[in-house]
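Quarterly update from the structural biology core.
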Amino acid sequence: MYEALSIAATGLRHQQLRMDTIANNVSNVNTVAYKGTRLDFKDALYTAGLVPGPARSPGENQQKGHGVMVAHIGREFRAGNLERTEQPLDLAIEGEGWFSLMDPNGVTLYTRNGNFNLSVEPDATYLVNAEGYYLLDQNGARIAVPAGASTIEVDTDGTMRFMNDIDEIGNAVLGIYTFRNVYGLEASGNGNFTQTAAAGERLGAPEAVVRQGMLEGSNVHLAEEMTRLIRTQRAFQLASRALTTADEMEGIANNMRR
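Predicted structure, tokenized:
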């Protein structure tokens, strides 16, 4: 009887975790380039219980489960819709590809969030994201805006051209990459990801198309999330009912009299 309580408790605990995951997705429905998360389950450990009696053949074993456990919490890396902002430093990637960034510790990060700004520093003016991480070029160097540049134009192939009122005074090529297995990337917060062994080798992204004056929206679809929420609530109710039934059976057993 105790096992029934334990199994029902695993259902409650993990369905609550699934609801938390859905809530996080819904709260980021308007976050730039947010990639939704999905939680999947699998059966918990099975153990073999032998049927009483002299015969102990394998066919008489009874497999007994222990509830559910989390199988995987992963990102859904499908692209979000592109939204026009008309801001010259807003960039979006159409197709497969990631902007490369450098954090204050010198670690290279990757993001689909192309909301960039200018950071005026003593040595130069750099392109940075909202956290102040530097945007990198194809050589892994920080992209500096030449003095006197009044306009930045970005071609679809990722070439940035810095213009003054008369002519082009500098250029750079964005460092845009992809990976053999994007699902192996590790989230590091704020829409940034780090490369891992599971992600495999970093590759160029020649088919990526850069759109200036646009941002990629979240890939969360509210209709899908609400459907998952309803299913999760029903599963939670079922686990709760199973827990209540097991508790009532425990009470009956404890109050039995000879």
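The longest strand covers residues 68-75.
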